[in-house]
Write a structure and sequence with these properties.
- The structure holds two protein chains of two kinds.
- By secondary structure, chain A is of the alpha/beta class.
- Chain A contains eight helices and 20 strands.
- In chain A, strand 2 and strand 3 form a beta hairpin.
- Chain B has one domain: P-loop containing nucleotide triphosphate hydrolases (Rossmann fold, 3-Layer(aba) Sandwich), CATH 3.40.50.300.
């Protein structure tokens, strides 16, 4: 494609072939068991192959709800990195945050070993489709030895005057002894029907740290297919949290490969869903290296006719001796019409490991509700306090303190004002 | 203050209360005694509106209002407070948020503005000191990880915050050592005003010594079979319930 670059074009045929061979995933496929792929792909979406630029200045048009954190702020509009006409935030030498295409046109050799290597097109049709069509995306490049202190906040805006299908690509390379904090905020600006496939590949070098937080606040007709692949070298640390407060249908595949000895991943998810919202997390954690540690905690609160799914597999390979793994999925169905599917899995091929897994699905604690009522607290407020407390257990584990506090407030507002407003702006007051 | 007439109630289809009549005046302390399963806790739970208990017959009037027609939270706002026999743990909800929600709900019911942050913290500190509740406990989740004694003390602390007109103490003395019991009862005596009434369920003489009830009732098989003064309580302590059967 003329509007892309050699790096991406080089993988396109393989992506197309693998997609043609596999077709859209059906529910018979284990990792798409709870997704309705054919329905989500059915509308007649437009594809922005000719790279028309949407006329929008995100810095003026939109304010993200996680402000004032002193972050370096960037915008992606669909799959296009928005280049600010104003000065861009300063970064340490050698660090790049920007358009994948722009960087690849100049330094393809630096990315050749990384692009489309973790995200294998032959085993996932959505990844194949994305690889076949992706023209641009985001690149975060942190060379060895560099610690990027400010949080890099990327606001992913989906917009379009017609129904749009976007294939966005994200590549994050953090060298040895380096550090990066990333915050992704997904928003929709218009109310059309949007489908986005997003494939992210994340390489975490030796003794490096990556904190990755993703917050979704989109709209009812937004569909997201988000495939994330993380590879960790020896002694590296990853903290990952995905939070869904508003959405349409979101399906996440997240693969964490603990390759290097002693690497650890703390993987968290918080889902607040109502109405007809669907949130599906399909997680794979592979212990390849010796003495790696993983801790998975996902919590869902489902109201209305929302549907939640969690399938999480922790696999310990023969080389993964002394693995220490804990996987927990706890869910609250607060309405009788909400549905939760949960499937925690362990697959162990080593003989000296410590692995736990478990899941629960329950309702609000009636004894607690009565206790609160006896103290005069209204049923609405009691439900809010209990639901917030339930999800907040995840949020409280986030290391980035300002984000933790802000998220806790946002979740409270989400419960207090529902899906229709924030309670904060002039419209809601 | 409280008038109960011919109250019948059941749990899961089983009738537990079989015609209770009881009148409590302003400032009076009534002790409820009786063997296990006689209906003491059921009576208290019915009064505060626990949805697990179904009233099948009878009426309850509280300061002239039809108590049974009110939802549990409004009964609380009207001045009814129960110290739970087994206080509930609520993980993740801090004592501060819990108490602020309770105070503000009451203020809303009374047509008042929400309490300011500063005033609230001052109130918490003042009431905490009455029951000698450690400050660190109020920063934790409601009752989570509290010892048995701390939970009971926390109940009396909440009572101090809400200043009820009628306090129901459901076996508040059980599981408390002598010192803890004295702190709890002293706290209760400090909090109560002249017209604060109380229903106290207890199996022990010590509680009677500290609280000096005006009246003692004995419940058996869901009915009040005997009413007397404090001496009745002491006799039960000495002889058991056999003389009433």
């Amino acid at each position: 494609m003329d509007h892309s670059c050699g790096l991406l074009n080089g993988q396109r045929d393989r992506g197309m072939e693998d997609f043609a061979r596999q077709g859209l995933p059906s529910r018979k496929q284990e990792r798409y068991k709870y997704a309705h792929v054919a329905e989500d792909f059915a509308p007649d979406y437009g594809l922005n192959l000719r790279r028309l630029i949407f006329k929008v200045d995100p810095y003026r048009a939109y304010r993200c709800s996680v402000p004032n954190m002193g972050t370096n702020l960037y915008y992606m509009i669909n799959d296009i990195f928005y280049t600010s006409p104003f000065a861009t935030p300063e970064l340490p030498e050698g660090v790049f945050v920007g358009s994948l295409r722009t960087f690849a046109l100049q330094h393809e050799e630096l990315l050749a070993d990384y692009y489309a290597k973790l995200a294998r097109t032959e085993v996932d049709a959505i990844t194949a489709l994305n690889t076949a069509y992706a023209q641009d995306g985001l690149l975060v490049y942190v060379p060895a030895g560099v610690r990027v202190k400010p949080t890099l906040q990327v606001v992913n805006m989906v917009r379009g005057d017609v129904d749009i299908l976007t294939h966005r690509r994200t590549l994050v390379i953090v060298g040895d002894e380096a550090e990066a904090n990333l915050l992704f905020c997904d928003h929709t600006v218009d109310n059309g029907t949007f489908l986005t496939t997003n494939v992210s590949e994340v390489y975490v070098g030796k003794n490096s740290r990556v904190n990755w937080y993703a917050l979704e606040e989109t709209s009812a007709s937004n569909r997201l297919y988000d495939n994330l692949y993380v590879s960790q070298e020896e002694g590296s640390h990853v903290e990952f949290a995905t939070i869904t407060l508003r959405n349409g249908t979101s399906r996440h595949r997240s693969d964490f490969i603990l390759k290097g000895k002693g690497s650890d991943a703390r993987i968290m998810g918080a889902v607040v869903a109502a109405d007809e919202e669907c949130v599906d997390h399909n997680l794979l954690v592979v212990h390849e290296g010796e003495a790696c540690k993983s801790n998975v905690l996902y919590k869902y609160v489902l109201d209305g006719r929302s549907v939640g799914a969690f399938a999480g597999k922790v696999m310990v390979k023969p080389s993964g001796q002394h693995a220490d793994s804990q996987e927990t999925n706890a869910n609250l169905c607060v309405s009788p019409t909400a549905h939760m599917y949960t499937q925690p899995m362990l697959e162990i091929y080593a003989d000296d490991v410590k692995c736990n897994h478990g899941s629960t699905v329950g309702q609000l604690d009636q004894t607690a509700l009565f206790y609160m009522a006896q103290r005069g607290i209204s049923p609405e407020e009691s439900r809010l306090l209990l639901q917030h407390a339930f999800v907040n257990e995840v949020i409280q584990q986030i290391q980035l303190v300002p984000l933790r506090e802000r998220l806790s407030q946002m979740i409270e507002q989400r419960f207090r004002y529902g899906n229709n407003g924030c309670g904060n702006c002039s419209l809601c007051k | 203050m409280l008038e109960i007439h011919n109250l019948h109630a059941s749990v899961e289809g089983k009738e537990i209360l079989r015609g209770i009549d009881l009148t409590i005046g302003d400032g009076e302390v009534h002790a409820l005694m009786g063997p296990n399963g006689s209906g003491k806790s059921t009576l208290c739970n019915v009064l505060v509106g626990n949805p697990a208990y179904v009233v099948t017959e009878g009426s309850v009037s509280f300061n002239g209002k039809d108590l049974l027609a009110l939802p549990p939270e409004d009964r609380s706002h009207e001045g009814l407070f129960m110290s739970f026999q087994a206080p509930i743990e609520i993980p993740g909800v801090s004592m501060v948020n819990f108490m602020r929600a309770a105070i503000n709900a009451k203020r809303k019911y009374e047509g008042l503005e929400p309490i300011s942050g500063g005033d609230f913290l001052k109130l918490m500190k003042e009431k905490r000191e009455i029951v000698e509740l450690d400050a660190s406990l109020t920063r934790r989740s409601v009752n989570e990880g509290f010892s048995g004694g701390e939970k009971k003390r926390n109940e009396i602390f909440q009572m101090a915050m809400l200043e009820p007109k009628l306090a129901i103490l459901d076996e508040t003395d059980s599981g408390l050592d002598v010192d803890a019991l004295r702190i709890v009862v002293d706290g209760f005596n400090k909090i109560r005003k002249e017209d604060t009434s109380a229903i106290v369920i207890t199996h022990y003489q010590r509680m009677l010594d500290y609280l000096r009830p005006d009246t003692v009732h004995v419940l058996m098989d869901g009915q009040i079979v005997e009413t007397g003064d404090a001496e009745l309580g002491y006799r039960i302590e000495r002889e058991g319930f056999d003389f009433l059967r």
